[in-house]
Specification:
The protein is an all-alpha fold. The protein contains 16 helices and no strands. Helix 3 packs across helix 5 (73-89) and helix 9 (133-139) runs antiparallel to helix 10 (144-153). The longest helix is centred in the middle third of the chain and has 17 residues, at 73-89. The protein is globular.
């Protein structure tokens, strides 16, 4: 049976101080950043995925949870990659345990890459045929990462042509104070538009004049230049 120490040692062997410095800036891990308090050791995402692929079968959920509470960013992201694999290959009982572990540790899923690597692949798929009220709770949280988790989880619904919760949470988070939530809402609206442009534009017709600029820009990124100009000038 693998242990968290095994994963830590392998990640440490792949550490790169130059990449760590770059990751710290990119993920805002420094003083005053939204990731303050974490530290990066400089392991690339592909390398972390390879480590997760080697250990996911042999590391218990308890061991994975230990990694998820680490102060090392790459250890937490690798833990989430392990959980994604466990969820995808597990039966209903095991998938439920993975979801509970995720929801019990949202305070450790505390950067945009951690949210985006887990919520659309664990929480979203779990909720496709279940009660989704947990998303309302997350969207009402004071924790920015909970709110981003809520909207990003709807990516799984979008993939199967179900847009209702993206629009529901998009309205709720329309005036969210945090840039990372605004960008996520715009991104999910864009994903709706990639599949059903008319559905996205119906939402935009009601809200684009009051949407934060960054949210609107993300939402209309794939539109034709003239159409983008119309929305940005308030004429959409």
């Amino acid at each position: 049976m693998a242990t968290p120490a095994d994963v830590r040692r392998e990640l440490a062997s792949l550490a790169d101080p130059v990449r760590a410095a770059r990751s710290s800036r990119f993920l805002r891990l420094g003083p005053g950043g939204y990731g303050e308090g974490d530290r990066a050791i400089g392991v690339s995402v592909p390398e972390q995925r390879r480590v997760a692929a080697r250990y996911w079968r042999d590391l218990s959920l308890t061991g994975t949870a230990e990694l998820l509470t680490s102060d090392v960013h790459e250890e937490r992201l690798t833990a989430l990659f392990i959980l994604v694999r466990t969820f995808a290959r597990g039966d209903e009982e095991e998938r439920g345990r993975v979801v509970r572990l995720l929801l019990d540790n949202t305070d450790h899923i505390n950067n945009w890459d951690l949210v985006d690597s887990s919520a659309p692949y664990i929480l979203g798929p779990w909720l496709i045929d279940k009660d989704r009220s947990v998303l309302d709770r997350l969207a009402s949280s004071d924790l920015v990462w909970d709110r981003r988790i809520a909207i990003m989880a709807t990516f799984a619904f979008i993939r199967v042509g179900d847009f209702d919760w993206t629009f529901r949470l998009g309205e709720r988070l329309l005036h969210d104070p945090h840039d990372l939530v605004r960008k996520a809402v715009g991104w999910m609206l864009r994903e709706v538009g990639n599949r059903d442009r008319a559905a996205e534009e119906e939402f935009l017709a009601r809200h684009h004049r009051v949407m934060p600029r960054v949210m609107l820009r993300y939402a209309i990124e794939k539109f034709e230049p003239q159409r983008r100009r119309e929305y940005l000038s308030g004429l959409g």
